Amino acid sequence: MKNECSIVRDLLPLYAENLVSDDTAAFVCEHLKSCDDCGKEYEQIKEPKPIQNGNEAAPLQSLSRKLKMKRIQTIALTAVFLIALFVSAFAVLGAPIYQPYSEGIVTFDKCGDKGLTLTFDKNVTDCRYDIHDDPDDSSVIICDIEAWTTLWDKWFSKSNGKETVSTTVANESKPMSLFYVPNDAGENVCIAKYDPYAENQIEIDGETKGVTTLPRLALGYYLILASAVLGITAIIWFFTRKRRNVRLWVERIGLYPVAYIISHLIISGINWETYSISRDFSLIIFLSIILYSGLLLAHNIRYLKKEIKAVNR
């Protein structure tokens, strides 16, 4: 009887899966009718078993979530990189290349009774002018004129026509002196004088007047500030590197000055001077935010890889 029970119990897993011959199945079935112990074992074998204990499945579930998060962060990091690349290309291609003064770069025509029409040559693709009172002579109005092109216009623009813009005298009772601003540390050139009440209203001048438009140095100050913040966070990181939670936050904060410094180098290179402070600083801030997001994602992916390796061990 004991030998028969041992044989039947060895066959029970196969019998439960219908993997035995008809004769063997008949033998096992007949034995189960007369043996309660083997019958109980057969019932246990037939009962569905849980796949895994909750505690045992938890690490695998955590690993699955981390792998999914890693894939999402990798995709997001790629998207941030492409956006940063696009913004960098836009900044480089759209940076103004200021045109030096040359005879004929701009010509003048009357525009009604209150102003002039300025027409630039084909090398100029954009311009700007600023009208203000002369600080040395309140009876005269100053019009500062800037003209530039960009790499985008040089390489991709199909337009080779002349750039035309109209200015209007702020107060028709005052004459206006027009200065060309080369933005190359050279002197501003008084290219014409306009007096609405003079017989010869437009007088071509073309002489320098000892006035130079200086570049702004603010970008250099911001770069120094970013470097100082990076140095401070590096010192704090050194003293808190063994405290994981504090170290993580210090690293996250320190990534922004890194992003700002990289953005400054992309937009302005190693040059601190700028003649377009609002444009350059706005581009640096915008690009630094994008790069900071990318660096944060890379930072999170790095620590996520460490956690996944720890789970796999």
State the gist of this model:
It is built from eight helices and nine strands. By secondary structure, it is α+β, with helices and mostly antiparallel strands.
Structural class: alpha+beta
Using DSSP, what is the number of strands?
9
Total helical segments:
8
Main sheet, how many strands, which sense, barrel? 6 strands, mixed
In terms of quaternary structure, what is this?
Answer: single chain
Domains counted in the coordinates: how many?
Answer: 3
Approximate helicity band: 40-55%
Catalogue the unreliable spans: none
The percent range for strand residues is: 15-25%
| Element-by-element helix/strand order | HHHHEEEEEHEEEEHHH
Radius of gyration: 39 Å
Task: Report on the architecture of this protein.
- The chain has 313 residues and is of the alpha+beta class.
- The chain has 3 domains: 2-46, no CATH class; 57-94 and 217-312, no CATH class; 98-212, no CATH class.
- The chain is built from 8 helices and 9 strands.
- The chain has helices at 2-16, 22-34, 36-46, 54-94, 151-155, 218-240, 244-268, 277-312, and strands spanning 97-98, 106-110, 115-120, 126-134, 137-149, 164-168, 176-180, 187-194, 202-212.
- Strands 1, 4, 5, 7, 8 and 9 form a 6-stranded mixed beta sheet that branches.
- A hairpin with a 4-residue loop joins strand 2 and strand 3 (115-120).
- Helix 1 (2-16) packs parallel to helix 3 and helix 6 (218-240) runs antiparallel to helix 7 (244-268).
- The longest helix is centred in the first third of the chain and has 41 residues, at 54-94.
- It is elongated.
- The two termini are 48 Å apart.
